[in-house]
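Reposting from the mailing list since nobody answered there.

I have sequence plus structure tokens for a pair of proteins and want to know whether others read the tokens the same way I do. The first protein:
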Amino acid sequence: MEVAIIGIGLRFPGRASNPEGLWDVLIAKESTWSPIPLERFGPKASRSEQSTRINGGHFLERGLASFDAGFFQVADKEAEGMDPQQRLLLEVSYEALENAGIRLGSISGTNTAVYIGKFTQDYDILLAKDGVSTGRYAATGTGQAILANRLSYFYNLNGPSVTIDTACSASLVALHLARQTILTGESELAIVGGVNLMCESSTMVSLDELGVLSTKGRSYPFDSRADGYGRGEGCASLILKRFDAAVRDGDPVRAVIRGSGVNSDGRTTGLTFPNGQAQQTLMRNVYQNAGLDSRDTVFVEAHGTGTPTGDPIEARAIHEVFRQNKAPPLYLGSVKGNIGHLEGASGLAGVIKAVLSLEKGLIPPTCNFEHPNPRIPLEQWQLQVSWIALCFIYN
């Protein structure tokens, strides 16, 4: 049984505020980087001990306070206490349902599932830091479970409603669990989402001190300039449905998910250090379980964060799995050069890029790639980072 993607909604930095805008940004090899807006980490933050050397990233153009509370049947006082991530998920999931041609009344009372991936909880930290109390709405306004529950409540959905925090893989794990829920018959339809907003400085400071961020605030995937990742914010939502049901109902099938899987690194050099062997095992298992031949793959939308250690490990894992490719080189890409690393929403950003690439028949160029990381011997590993737009060659 296969699962179809029938609807897409997104809100990414710069002019990538919808699927068409994202595609324009990808093809133009455009970076949405900007200085940190003063209203996020303003003068107060920069003078405090919570200052950071990072001076930019990838931020949404629209202010975080913008929200049509009346449309979503939320009282003004309650809206004030809501994490902006909740508000954004309501808006973007609605756009995804609209993109799928689904009327809200048609899913009310159904077993539709909701799975949301997240990483940060900046708004909760911000309220505590400023000593702000939102009274009776404090628990529901910043509760992490409510990111998913808010959607189930508004749309009146009775299926599983789960918020997932597995850091940067969160939205992909959400996608996997939603797919599993559909395959087991627990739900016929699922709303999958990922969200990431930067509301205050302490998360940025902590990640900087951990040594994972680029001093320039930019991601350089697989590039010799890679010195960490550039943070980005945004929200993405996909509508999933059993493929045969989507065909039966005449839904717009944007893409088909043939397989998915989840594993863990186990013990490595350090808690945040990736395990290349585990990555290989996961990719092989997913292909085997899906009945697919890895040799037929022509393009991989990689994690590609732009970290000097992570990129070579990932590239080598991809090489080991796809080394028998029928038509080398295998092309690699990463959306993070364009819109930054969206952390809890980053996985879905990559999935949406891949879906758009299939629809357009083009592999977009990789933004911020000029010269390969010296630890990634592309020619030897029969890999190539896409640096111009290329046509897909289908078997």
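The second protein, same order (residues first, tokens after):
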Amino acid sequence: MHTGDKPFPCDVCGQRFTRKSYKDSHMRIHTGNKPFPCKICGKRFNQKYSLDRHMRSHTGEKPFHCDVCGQKFIQNSHKNSHMRIHTGDKPFPCKICGKRFNQKYSLDRHMRVHTGEKPFPCDVCGQKFIQNSHKNSHMRIHTGDKPFPCELCGQRFSQKFSLNTHMRIHKGEKTFLCDVCGQRFRHKSSVTCHMRIHAGDKPFPCDLCGHRFSQKSHLNSH
């Protein structure tokens, strides 16, 4: 014990332990034995400390608090992970583009951009999304839910970005600048549309006379 000897090896994976009781506890990982049930929800655990930790989800106990902002956590590992927000530590790099993340789940989510994986389908129309939050936001199109009201005129929106865009009307903001002539616009799409004037792009042809227009509205007027 004092020399660091670990005389009790696991017969399955070879990991060694200082006490037989530690080895016996470890063996449950391999056997699948879970002798510690939660008396509230019935979920079972192979270690007593895992059950104790789980019980906090029922009791609401959060014994680990952040020394910087005071936020509390059920597990110490959650607190340590949270601390990276304050320290700026980003130990999870993307091997494809090099972008770094402070949480492993953020890296996993980012990787879907490269792989094209979209594991969250809409149950109504089948459109797929990289994040579940994106799917939930999309669902408001089908439900008609508009939880973002304008405090000035009362108009409601299904998306936060739609409200932010709308607010520029009240504020008179024109945040999108044409790099060629300096004209400003409220919407990015308006800049894109305007740039066709400079580029000479006319993607809207008249089916009757063949005359082409840079704007759909100009074609409609024609």
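Reply #1 (J.P.):
I read it the same way you do. Residues 177 and 184 are 4 Å apart (CA to CA).
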